[in-house]
């Protein structure tokens, strides 16, 4: 069980490192985005009815990628157990993202040294805030905040359920990762206060992200070898409007002894200075290490759960 789960997580991480993100034309998440985009319209002039439609969307849409992923693994299992494992690992790869996040963050940080226009343009791929008036330090803050938040959203949120379920059932593991990615995609596209149709999606995402955000914060503290970063983060974790994003962001700020600020919204670790250029490189390296820490934690928890339930090794279960 341990080797199988670790191998699948390693397979997905290896693909991410070697390939990065597939082109949009071939990326299932982009296909899901097109479906969500088609549903994002005015179904009624009444905000209450729009919210009702939104609840239906939040209930049904994430089940689509979950059903496709789970079925794909089941179909592959009918040919050979190894094929099922490869398909499940591919699902994890497609539903998680680390390399692109770190590369884009690095590009923004580097550009703040001599090319602010490029930094402002590139950081829009990470954050939704207005960037024209941001200083180099505030641009670095925005990029590093996003790196911490997206560690939870884009990596930990799908890795955890996958690793927990993989020793028990590969189809369930793949379906769970795809379902979470569906929830995240809905929230990123619809979950704005100005969109009544996205109210349910935003609330569902808040619920789903509660554990991943806090696990990400713990992983950052462990990777930094600084347990006090979590105690420090507790003071500001509730400052952002999201009930979850403040945890990884504040923990990264405390671990680096820097300040993260979104003007007019929140100020994390405000007694420190905004990030310098070298802080950006330290942050990127720390988020990368935190991803590895999370992978180890997830594998250990998955194997422990399977042992507690007395489950047979994954491939043996599929082969029967």
Automatic annotation (TrEMBL):
Its main location: membrane. Keywords: Cell membrane, Cobalamin biosynthesis, Membrane, Transmembrane, Transmembrane helix. One of its GO terms (biological process) is cobalamin biosynthetic process. Pathway: Cofactor biosynthesis; adenosylcobalamin biosynthesis. One of its GO terms (cellular component) is plasma membrane. The chain crosses the membrane at residues 52-75, 82-102, 159-180, 290-310. It is found in: Cell membrane. The keyword Membrane applies. GO terms for molecular function: ABC-type vitamin B12 transporter activity; threonine-phosphate decarboxylase activity. It comes from the Archaea. It is a multi-pass membrane protein. Converts cobyric acid to cobinamide by the addition of aminopropanol on the F carboxylic group. Belongs to the CobD/CbiB family. HAMAP family: CobD_CbiB. This is Probable cobalamin biosynthesis protein CobD. The lineage of its organism: Archaea, Methanobacteriati, Methanobacteriota, Stenosarchaea group, Halobacteria. The gene is cobD.
């Amino acid at each position: 069980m341990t080797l199988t789960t670790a191998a699948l997580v390693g397979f997905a991480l290896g693909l991410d490192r070697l390939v990065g993100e597939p082109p949009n034309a071939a990326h299932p998440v982009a296909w899901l985005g097109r479906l969500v985009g088609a549903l994002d319209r005015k179904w009624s002039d009444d905000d209450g009815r729009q919210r009702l439609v939104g609840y239906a969307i939040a209930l049904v849409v994430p089940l689509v990628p979950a059903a496709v992923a789970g079925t794909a693994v089941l179909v592959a299992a009918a040919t050979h157990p190894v094929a099922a494992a490869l398909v499940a690992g591919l699902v994890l790869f497609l539903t998680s993202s680390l390399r692109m996040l770190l590369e884009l963050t690095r590009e923004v940080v580097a550009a703040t040294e001599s090319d602010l226009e490029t930094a402002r343009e590139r950081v829009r791929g990470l954050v939704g805030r207005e960037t024209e008036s941001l200083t180099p330090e505030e641009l670095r803050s925005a990029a590093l905040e996003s790196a911490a938040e997206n560690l939870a959203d884009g990596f930990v949120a799908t890795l955890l359920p996958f690793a927990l379920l993989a020793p028990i059932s590969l189809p369930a593991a793949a379906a769970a990762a795809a379902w979470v990615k569906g929830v995240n995609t809905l929230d990123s596209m619809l979950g704005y206060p100005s969109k009544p149709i996205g109210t349910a999606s935003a609330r569902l995402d808040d619920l789903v992200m509660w554990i991943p955000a806090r696990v990400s914060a713990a992983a950052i503290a462990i990777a930094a070898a600084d347990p006090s970063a979590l105690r420090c983060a507790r003071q500001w974790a509730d400052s952002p409007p999201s009930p979850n994003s403040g945890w990884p962001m504040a923990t990264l700020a405390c671990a680096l002894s820097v300040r993260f600020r979104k003007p007019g919204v929140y100020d994390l670790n405000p007694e420190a200075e905004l990030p310098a250029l070298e802080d950006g490189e330290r942050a990127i390296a720390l988020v990368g290490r935190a991803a590895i820490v999370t992978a180890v934690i997830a594998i250990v928890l998955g194997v422990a759960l399977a042992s507690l339930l007395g489950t047979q090794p994954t491939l043996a279960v599929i082969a029967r």
